[in-house]
Design brief:
heterodimer; A: TIM Barrel; 8-stranded parallel beta sheet; 12 helices; 8 strands; 36% helix; 11% strand; B: mainly beta; 6-stranded antiparallel beta sheet; 3-stranded antiparallel beta sheet; 2 helices; iron-sulfur (chain B); 2 iron, 2 sulfur cluster binding (chain B)
Chain lengths: 365, 148
């Protein structure tokens, strides 16, 4: 059965002929049972005997209004669980050269390191066999068992043996700031393999989304997503992750970017007076961020005056940071052309559409 | 040049300072390891009372967790924003990239004096964009004298 295209969801005419890489496409596991072919008997039985439920991400509640593209949900299973729909609704109509897959299954919510490692491996094998090996436009992000950085590094090493994986992902709402030295085995493995470390919005670490505790409403959770990213970028820079791993690139996924220029202003200013605390940060933090941090573009902040957004992009002082993404099957724009900011130059548009992704994802080929 | 007697030698022990008001200026007179230096009590960055800051050293690092602590007692940190200046020369020591832009040429004996400091060059430091005003200091028998 041919998949019907979604209305107003295809490559805009004015992008004809240009390479397009989608750096954030979501796949969702229907349920834990789908991992059984990839799990050892011990863990299959453990899950069955304990009555363990599924671990879907709560960043996009499945019935919250307007979060998912209309008709992106297959007859069975959650949105993002059908390869056929992904091909017919995204890969074909957008004429994607590559789509980088993300899976936000909440491995990070598990308190048993061994189970987390087993589930992460199973999830990555599921991604490899049921997605990446089924369509050569797809590239993968290996989910890591962040609970145990040594296990996470081993998972990155396993993923490195499969050329379809181009990234490893960790959640933005981690148990502690991601720059801390305990996590460095992950970055060591990622740098060695040429993986980008993707920081994916969300996470079930137990930490609230805000520094003042738990908000009441979903809208607060959703709008507050950048808070965790700001903390993570500061941690990566101040802890000296990019001094220790100079080839490493970090991609923020679904974190936005309009908050970044003022953060860099403040960070640079205060670094001048406090740099003796972090003497390995020998350059203004904004320079380090521009060299090492890349950002997927959806969801795009859209002020009523489009020029304001262009000003923010100028204030990044870099054309290399932003990477095109749809965040399929999440709904972020009513018209396809709105996937990119209005009024950007042709040169910048080309970089956002594919150039920056190719420069960032060293394994993308 | 006018000589101002600002203190007896005993008044400013090594590591100590005295802030004095002479020629309508507030000036900090420092004893750094037996040598006397005078710098204007006015941070060239934001106008803060620089000489009331903490004296310390410079920290540099070639990798996270490694601390190379040099010039202990030779650095003053402005109490307002924490910017670091070498007491002997008034030169700022952060943000070396900005020295490529020679934005503040008013500095007193900045470049030459600094180039001669082997400890700083060995540590990879380059002069920052700001320098505080420094004054000649001499010790005449038991008195510390500032020349303005």
């Amino acid at each position: 059965m041919a998949v019907q295209q979604l209305e107003n969801y295809a490559r805009p005419e004015q992008w004809t002929g240009l390479e397009l890489v989608d750096t954030d496409v979501h796949i969702n596991l229907p349920g834990l049972k789908n991992l059984f072919p990839y799990l050892e008997a011990r863990w299959r039985d453990y899950i069955t005997e304990s009555g363990m439920g599924g671990l879907p991400s709560d960043l996009y509640p499945s019935n919250a209004p307007n979060l998912f593209l209309d008709r992106s949900r297959p007859e069975q299973g959650p949105a993002g669980s059908s390869l056929e729909l992904l091909q017919g609704q995204l890969l074909d109509p957008w004429q994607l050269q590559y789509a980088i897959l993300n899976c936000t299954y909440a491995i990070d919510s598990i308190h048993n390191d061994d189970l987390a490692a087993a589930l992460a491996r199973a999830l990555n094998r599921w991604q490899l066999h049921e997605w990446l090996e089924q369509d050569d436009r797809l590239r993968g992000s290996a989910v890591l068992p962040l609970q145990n950085p040594a296990f996470a590094a081993k998972e990155a090493e396993w993923a490195a043996e499969h050329s379809q994986f181009v990234q490893v992902t960790v959640p933005s709402r981690s148990r502690e700031p991601l720059g801390r030295r305990g996590f460095w085995p992950i970055y060591q493995a990622a740098q060695a393999a040429g993986f980008v470390v993707g920081v994916q919005a969300g996470g079930s670490s137990g930490n609230p989304v805000t520094p003042v505790g738990w908000p009441t409403y979903f809208v607060e959770d959703y709008v507050n997503v950048p808070l965790a990213f700001q903390t993570q970028l500061m941690s990566f820079v101040t802890e000296g992750v990019f001094v220790e791993f100079p080839e490493l690139k970090v991609a923020t996924i679904e974190g936005g970017f309009s908050w970044l220029p003022p953060l860099m202003w403040r960070f640079d200013k205060d670094w001048k007076g406090l740099r003796r605390e972090v003497p390995w940060v020998e350059r203004p933090p904004s320079e380090v961020i521009r060299d090492h941090v890349r950002m997927t573009i959806a969801p795009l902040d859209r002020p009523d005056t489009p020029e304001y957004l262009l000003d923010v992009i100028d204030q990044l002082l870099s054309d290399d940071m932003l990477m095109f993404s749809t965040d399929y099957p999440h709904a972020h724009f009513a018209n396809s052309a709105d996937a990119l900011p209005d009024g950007i130059s042709g040169e910048l548009r080309t970089k956002i559409m594919s150039g920056n992704a190719h420069a960032t994802y060293r394994r993308l080929s | 040049m006018t000589k101002y007697v600002v203190a007896t030698v005993d008044e400013i022990a090594p590591g100590q300072r005295k802030v004095v008001e002479i020629a309508n200026r507030s000036i900090g007179v420092f004893n750094v390891k037996g040598n006397y230096y005078a710098i204007r009590n006015l941070c060239p960055h934001g106008g803060g009372p620089m000489c009331e800051g903490v004296t310390s050293g410079l920290v540099r690092s070639d990798r996270p967790g490694n601390y190379d602590y040099i010039m202990r007692g030779e650095i003053i940190r402005c109490p307002w924003h924490g910017w670091e200046f070498e007491i002997a020369t008034g030169q700022s020591w952060f943000d070396p990239a900005k020295t490529k832009v020679k934005a503040y040429p008013a500095g007193v004996e900045s470049g030459e004096t600094l180039a001669k400091n082997p400890e700083l060059s060995a540590a990879g430091f380059q002069p920052g964009p700001y320098s505080g005003e420094t004054y000649e200091v001499e010790v005449d028998r038991d008195y510390v004298i500032v020349n303005i």
